Amino acid sequence: MTESTVRLGTGEHLTRLSRMAEDLRGQLSAYRDRLGARQNDFPRGVLEALRQLSGTLQGLRAVVDEVEDERARLASLVDVGRVVNSSLDLSTVLAEVIDTLIRITGAERGFLMMRDESDLRVMVARNWERSSIGPGDEAFSRTIVERVERLGEPILTTNAQADARFSGHESIVAYNLRSVLCVPLKVKGNVIGVIYADNRAREGLFSEKDRTLLAAFADQAAVALENARLFASVERTLDEVTRLKTLMEDVFASIASGVITSDVQDRILLCNHAAEGILARPASALVGSSLGDLLPELSPELPPRVAEVREREQRLIAYEVHPDLQGRGRVALSLSVTPLRSAAQEVQGVTLVVDDLTETRRLEAARRLFERMVSPAVIDQLDPESIELGGRLEEITTLFADLQGFTSLGESTDPETLVSVVNRYLAAAAEAILEQQGTIDKFLGDAIMAWFNAPIAQPDHRLRAARAALGVRRAAEALRAEMPEAFRLRFRIGVHTGPAVLGLIGTESRVEYTAIGDSVNTAKRLQENAASGQILLSREAIEPILGQVEAEPAAPVQALGKRAAVEVWELRGLRTPAPG
Questions:
Q1: What is the dihedral of CA 41, 45, 50, 54, to 10 degrees?
Q2: Lowest-confidence range among 51-60, 78-87, 167-176, 237-246?
Q3: Which of 65, 129, 150, 363 has the fewest Cβ atoms within 10 angstroms?
Q4: Looking at residue 397, what DSSP letter applies?
Q5: Could you tell me the CATH superfamily of domain 255-360?
Q6: Any bridge partners for residue 179, and if so which?
Q7: CA 85/CA 220 separation, integer angstroms
């Protein structure tokens, strides 16, 4: 038999009993009236017994009414428990609590307040019409509310205006408060809020039974409210965790570095998109497989290194390996391995971060090769993001040097040997030029072209060119001593100073940083007219440094394309500075 069936049966029984008592009283009253006229016909004791029976029935009616009222109150309390525990939505529970309170007590208004940090805050305020009360109409006694919260005990007053406990308090007088009932909301002995009900018009609305009933009601409501609040907190926490999880997944997926995590059994747990691309394997082939199978494929030295990370709980940072990966070929990878720890700082596995250095290493190798072909000073002046064709006019000192006898040597020597011999001479010449911070423009077969005073200004560019020319000749002489007779070659060198246009010459698909101008052609003509081992400098190149070098005038050179002969000097060496 259900609770509702019991309540229904009890109610019907009491109602029938009440009706039977009322009917009997009516019948007895009628009999008494009739018997009044005939009272002389009955014995005196019978009439007295009937009067006592009538009084007993009246008392029985009062008891039945009281029991019926108590039953209604208990039924309301059961309904309260059902209502307030029917939802975990905090706003719904709050409204149901107050509406039920007003219904069972006959209050005009009801307020539910809960502690928010250091103060009580009105969570819901309703009136007898089940309408919300706005903030401007929240006129209640803060004195009573604060006392209930502080003491944790209910307060009942049938007329707050005349209650000595609250005499003189402004809120009682200003709001014309009469009947007030306020009970604490407690959870595990702690006051988390209060329920406040009042009626500003009627005195004596609430009784001790109302206080007892409302206290029991508050116990149920407090639990329901706390459950709803905890549920709301859990929902917020879950939403935040979900948001952070989504964010972490997005970050994990967008990281340019490959990230792989494994547990203590070496089983791979996670693998991001970047790791798939770097290792040329899908995540489905990596996740669930053994890290111990992957590591030797990257490098035979990796397994003991990773084992050391686990045992010593130390990180392995930027360890470079060069494996051959199926589908990618030989690659350059930088690996960092760190212990994977739990919140309690216990090692749960390792995290492997993989960076692909293949393209970086390729570009570095290309730059090293480029630096061997072009002066580092030129490379540093170039901005790959803003390369434009064209140049600017600069005064430079140009040096040309070529190997005499190279053509005839090529006729009697196989190409491999010839290239090897020429490269040794040109390498020695380039070293001498770079030692004086000259810019090597290009190698032209067996010749080398360089200039000074650009792209970085060099006030002593003429002297630097002279020193470089002498250095080229010394280097060639040193090589001659090591070479077989057939490979003993000498440089012919020409040097001239004048204006030239320096910049990027060519097309968008193929450019060259070079110098163009008559001064460059003149230096070339001087080199072509120099004898084996001879260094010829034009007047423009040697005049400002005549006091610093040893040189003799030579026969003027009738350069191709020149109307007048070019005055030249033969450079023999540098002057030794006079002491002190």
A1: 140
A2: 78-87
A3: 129
A4: E
A5: PAS domain (3.30.450.20)
A6: 199
A7: 8
* Residue range 337-369, pLDDT digits in tens: 888 887 777 788 888 899 989 888 888 886 776
Spatial contact of 357 and 322, defined as CB atoms under 8 Å apart: no
Instruction: Return the CATH superfamily for domain 87-233.
Output: GAF domain (3.30.450.40)
Tokens 């009084």 label which residue?
55
Q: Is the pTM of this model over 0.85?
A: no
Please state, in angstroms and rounded to a whole number, the distance separating the CA atoms of residues 34 and 27: 11
Phi and psi dihedrals of 344, rounded to 5? -90, 10
Contacts of 227 (CB under 8 A, 6+ apart): 85, 88
Strands 119-127 and 258-263, by their bridges, are unpaired
Number of neighbours of residue 226 by Cβ within 10 angstroms: 18
Give residue for tokens 């390996």.
321
CATH architecture of the domain covering 388-574: 2-Layer Sandwich (3.30)
The number of CA neighbours under 13 Å toward the Cβ of 510 is: 0
* pLDDT tens digits for range 31-56: 666 655 555 555 656 656 656 666 66
- Alpha carbons within 13 angstroms on the beta-carbon side of residue 318 total 1
